[in-house]
Amino acid sequence: MKLFLTSSIGGSYKENGRRIPCALMNENHFLDHIKKYWTNNSKCLLVSAEPDNQELSNSLKIVFTEAFKLSNLSLSEMDVCDRRNDNEIADSIYDYDVIMLTGGHVPTQNQFLSRMGLKELLKSYKGIIIGISAGSMNCADVVYAQPELDGEAVNLTYEKYLEGLDLTKINILPHFQEIKEQTLDGLRILEDISLPDSKSRPFYALVDGSYIFVENNNSTLYGEAYWIHEGALTKICERDKNIVL
Description:
- The protein has helices at 30-37, 54-70, 86-90, 106-116, 118-121, 134-137, 176-179, 189-197, and strands at 2-6, 10-15, 18-24, 42-47, 75-81, 98-101, 128-132, 142-144, 161-163, 172-173, 183-184, 187-188, 203-206, 211-215, 218-222, 225-229, 232-237, 242-244.
- It is globular and about 45 Å long.
- The chain is built from eight helices and 18 strands.
- The two termini are 18 Å apart.
- It has one domain: Rossmann fold.
- Helices cover 25% and strands 33% of the residues.
- It has an eight-stranded mixed β-sheet with strand order 5-4-6-7-1-14-15-18. Strands 10-13-16-17 form a four-stranded mixed β-sheet, with no helix packed on it. The chain has a two-stranded antiparallel ribbon with strand order 2-3.
- By secondary structure, it is of the alpha/beta class.
- Helix 2 (54-70) links the parallel strand 4 (42-47) and strand 5 (75-81).
- It comes from [Clostridium] fimetarium.
- One of its GO terms (molecular function) is serine-type peptidase activity.
């Protein structure tokens, strides 16, 4: 299995409220890296983070199908897995060369992946897995689901730690360039949530364009990233650089 943990992979931009397909990003040679393992006429599966939002699922399929073509990634089929077909897809998961775990609300996607039994199904999977934002976060053995929706940061019953897919021990915090300046429920996300939570479980904060590649239990970080541990924030890698974790 080749696992890419990303904050964002590009593939589209917004114009007048519409999402327009474009090539995948190649910051830190991400697209070049994917192409090393991509097989001709790959069959790809998009696993939804919003399984009840069929309109979003259909839109993602259209956008990424075109984005892969624009990226010169050969594709024979693009399927979407959401609430409509999760049982059917679970029975044919090994037919896919590439599985993409899309971004969205971490706990919502986590519940869906658990319902599918995806953790067990992926234990013998040999293809490419691409996590995007929430999808990357749910790849961990123990998922750190940092509060992100209104009310979650002050909800005493909100569960920050969930059982994940156990594809890696690494926890990531995506879109760090944005969240370090944001607030939620009157709290500063970085100073009042991320840093205190890192005393329980450390994680890597990735800016968009950075990613972690995992193969054979070896993990390499590409691009600008930060190590958040014991309440401290440390920059550990720069753009166009990489380090072995």
